[in-house]
Amino acid sequence: MIPLFPQRRSLDKVKTASLGAVCRGPAADPVPVDPGHGNLTSLVASDLLVEAARWVCDLTLILRPGALNPPDSAARYMQIKNTTHIISSRFMPTDSTAARISTRESRHQAISHQNRRLSAMAPSPPADLQVLCRKLTSIPQAQLPHALPLLTRHIVRCKDTLAAPQEQKSKDDGSQSAQLVHKLRTSVTTLLKGRDREARFAAIGLVKAIIDVGGWEMLRVSEPWVAGLLSIVQKGDSFPTKDLAVATLARIYILVQPYQTLVREIATRTIPTFITACLQLIKPRSTGQDPSAPLSVVGTICDAFSALIPIYATTFRPFSSQIRSAVRGFLAPTLSDDLLIPLSLQRAARKVVISLHCVAAKSGGSEEWAKIVDSLLQELHATADQVLRAVDESWEGTSGYNRKRVNPDGESSGGSNSGDQLPPWSGLSSGAERLVGIFAYLSDCLRYPTKAPVVIPVGALLDAVSRVCLIARQSPKSQTWDQAVETNAAISREEKAELWAAIPDIHMSALALISVMLQRFRQGMIPLVPEVLDHLVRVFKSGISNPAVRMTGYRLLNNVLPLAGPTMSRATVSVLEPLIAACCRDLQEDAGFLKAIPKAATTSKNDSKKSGLANADLFLQPQASSVETSVHLDAAHKGAADDLLAAFLSSLPQHHLKPTLRGLLDKTAILTQNRDAMLSSVLNPYKDQRGRMYPSILPHLSQQYPQDQGVEILRSNLRTSSVPGSIDLVASVTEVEQEQQQDEEEEQMGGDGEPINEEARATESLQDMVKPAVPKVDLPIQSNPFEAKATASNGFNVATVTRHDSVTKRKHEDADTAPSKRQEVNKSAPANLSEPVPAAEDDDNSDSDVSVHLNMELDDDEEEEDE
């Protein structure tokens, strides 16, 4: 670069001389010199000209008479004058240059003025911070807990100020905010270490709020707060205060984990003290007594431990055995315990014990986790030996666990007093609860993450499930438990009855374990789907009268269908018929389309007269109102059934479904206004083996959801086929049923016919459903495809489901309808064919052989007349 100022040293001398002259000048007439304009060597080319011009002006002011002292005024005056002449002759700008310099100078002045104005208008500290500091000192300490929500809102609004670096600066407007933040920290520390309990409780809440919004800036100064919180947990404060202190400490330890310096200064030093103080609250005062703290505080401590163990495994390692022994009473509680443990505490305690495998040295976490699962499986089979001793089991273990003979005398018992095992129990009900708790424990082992990859004994888990699921009734309405399973004659009848009452809970816990396995392994469970469906159907049929069993079955099947539903065979789909019928029944019953079946009067005539005389309210006929009352399902039960209904129509191969079941699914979707199920039905139309299509329910979907965008897309994209003769592919349900009658007879007469009978029993009470359904849902539509043909209306007639269950009636119908004639679509249907339901009902209610032969003769006469 070519230097713009060859005589830079001369200019520096001029600057020095001029400054010295100003310093030695008279005090009454000082000349201000701008220091920023003296260093000419640091300026760029254009700015140098401006600076030179200013320097010349400054020298001109200095060189006026009287500016220097008299002794050396002449010599120094000539020296400075010569230097000024050199600068003026070399750097004095021309006219254009002067104009440019003036413009640039004015711009620099404007920028400097703007900077001074912005610094003067710097944002003041937030009003919320000022109000917060003032209220902490003005509100009485006894009233601070009531004002805590308001104070925390102020803290949240001060997030930017609390998270900003708080460095004291001498001439910065941020110093006021820093002072207020320091005042806030001091006030909170004073309240935390004060003597008033209300003030300490409020201080804990303020500390947690400040830590959450302040980040690293507040964490690095939180050591006094940690010490105060630990003293509260250790000393005799109230349990709500200790509960909040434990949660706040856990939050601080989690937030400091990314910062190694803060971990060494805060976490590593104080976590052992924190663990010891918490264990003192969990441990009971003596063996067999309640813990020192309430169960809510114990749950908070368990949650804190399970969150801190994975990130501070080395610190928790010396306390692993103490933690396991302290919470073992909460893992799988029974009636033998003197304390009722809530489900939330059970899951929190299990999570703590499961996370203890993280404290194992090096790569031993996988082995520790495997030991936990193996010990649980051994405990489960040992408990099952005691609980199921009234049953002569046919189960044989395939994973190394075999059943053992137990003494039938005395009361069943189990458990151990060891600190590493579950507590002892006695009594069959307690043993059943222990089985349920162990199944839930195994589910949690699969639900929570692990430190390293682990080997899961899937075969052993399914083996344990199959042991309890094999004890079931295939026909609960026609079989007793003594008839369904082989029992041990040495066991009392009372114990057997107690076992039959506990079996549904054990079944549900086993199915819940399978659901967790499906959610965890997903595609890896596909090879085991046949075994899972076998257990599901057996348990579902055994406990179909229990709503909880049905809900558990719906949830499990809803997890299976997305994985293996599209590839199921016809035989597998037929196995699911009891669940399809039960799902539709539950939904229609909840929607109010099922009436209660009136019970036949069993009292004698004299007894009825006596009761009528004794109770005059019978004349008011309260039964008329009681019939109209409908049964409503729980929200979880209804949600599971709704999801399963849509899954039946979207995930199952529709051509494997029977026409009656597909009609029942479509009808249930319409009556319950299930949008997802109706969309699935429209997108997955029913076709038989000949390619004939089932009528679509798109008109009903359009009527119930006219504003739905998805429905509009379907209406605009689903067009009628233009292929000639395609309308002949639309077949009625009755016609398809006639073609499959022979297959149905073979399925019912050969092997196990229970699924079909179960379906018939589940839909017997649906016969009167069509009549009240029309006015309630307003189903009649002008373009209704179900009214286009008389035979198509049977697709939603439940009477057709029950009419063909009798073998004799099927033979009669075959003789009556053979040979079947093809029905032309373009012909108008007779008016009397639109109401076939009363005839079917009369046919079902009549057992007279004369009427059957009479009907056959009348049909023969009609055929002769037609010919």
Architecture blueprint of SSEs:
Blueprint: H1 8-24, H2 45-62, H3 73-91, H4 95-120, H5 127-138, H6 144-157, H7 159-163, H8 175-192, H9 197-214, H10 216-219, H11 223-234, H12 239-255, H13 260-282, H14 295-308, H15 313-316, H16 320-327, H17 343-355, H18 365-387, E1 413-414, E2 425-426, H19 428-447, H20 458-469, H21 481-484, H22 493-521, H23 529-542, H24 547-564, H25 570-575, H26 577-591, H27 605-614, H28 623-628, H29 635-651, H30 659-671, H31 675-683, H32 698-704, H33 709-717, H34 733-739, H35 741-749, H36 754-763, H37 770-777, H38 799-803, H39 807-817, H40 837-845, H41 849-866
Helix pairs in contact: 1-2, 1-3, 2-3, 2-4, 5-6, 5-8, 6-9, 8-9, 9-12, 11-12, 11-13, 12-14, 13-14, 14-17, 18-19, 18-20, 19-22, 20-22, 22-23, 22-24, 23-24, 24-29, 26-29, 26-30, 26-36, 29-30, 29-31
Q: Describe it for me?
A:
With 867 residues, the protein is an all-alpha fold. Among the domains are: 8-120, no CATH class; 544-596 and 629-719 and 726-813 and 822-835, no CATH class. Helices cover 61% and strands 0% of the residues. It has a two-stranded antiparallel sheet with strand order 1-2. The protein is globular, with a radius of gyration of 44 Å.
